[in-house]
Amino acid sequence: MRPSLDEAQRRGRFPRRRPPVPESAGRARDLTRAFLAEVAPGEPEVTDAALLVVSELVTNAIRHAGGVTGFGLRTDPEAITVTVADASPRPPHRRRTPVSQPGGFGWPMVLRLASRVRVRKGPHGKAVEASLALPPPSGAAHISFTAGA
């Protein structure tokens, strides 16, 4: 039997999982929902914001950067951090799209929802990290899982 999150905290051990790199935004949302159910239960606002950010970052990686090459979720006492990596070295940018046309709204939404956004360039593309603030913890854990290279 796997120890509960509280037991893992007391023992100083936290679960780690290495899920497959999600091939779709839907799969990424499923992984995120499962992760948040364990680390931030009862936080619907955090869950909703994280699901929106995950959907946007994964969709952009698929549409504009050749697909997702890495995916990760981690938490600390202050935030949930979503990381999506892709093969493109180009950083995300704001598009000037008329309101009557689709597209151009996702990146500004990520910037509004996240308390911190960081784009890290690497030898094989980039990774976008978006951190979403958590309410004050009552005993938060440091938990993470990462997929891909």
Describe what you observe in this structure.
It is built from 4 helices and 6 strands. Mean pLDDT is 82; it is low at 1-17. It is an alpha+beta fold. It has a 6-stranded mixed sheet, covered by helices on one side. A hairpin with a 2-residue loop joins strand 4 and strand 5.
Descriptive key words:
alpha+beta, six-stranded mixed sheet, 4 helices, 6 strands, disordered N terminus
Summarize the topology.
Blueprint: H1 5-11, E1 16-17, H2 25-39, H3 44-64, E2 68-75, E3 79-86, H4 106-113, E4 116-122, E5 125-133, E6 143-148
Parallel strand pairs: 1-6
Antiparallel strand pairs: 2-3, 2-6, 3-5, 4-5
Work out the number of β strands.
6
Termini separation comes to: 30 Å
Number of continuous helical runs: 4
Query: Would you tell me the overall average pLDDT?
Result: 82
SS content category? alpha+beta
User: Largest beta sheet: what is the strand line-up?
Assistant: 1-6-2-3-5-4
Q: So what's the overall shape?
A: globular
Radius of gyration: 16 Å
Low-confidence stretches: 1-17
Percent helix range:
25-40%
The sequence of SSEs as H and E is HEHHEEHEEE
Strand content: 25-35%
Main sheet specs: 6 strands, mixed
